[in-house]
Amino acid sequence: AFAARDARRLQGAAHRLKGGAWQIAASETGDLAFEIEKRAKAESWDGVEALVRDLLLALDRLQTELDHLTR
User: What's the predicted TM-score (pTM) here?
Assistant: First the structure.
């Protein structure tokens, strides 16, 4: 959705990710998704690329934490 500059799809994806992340107390991931959601809703692309990059890194860290929980 980001690469295609599809604000509606990006907003929906970020909204779902935000909700799931906040439900499991993954605040960094949820907060980044929320910021992306807000910008997509406003169709403001300024800074979104950096936010998406930060979100991907946060998701990697979250995956690592989840992997440690299942060991």
Answer: 0.90
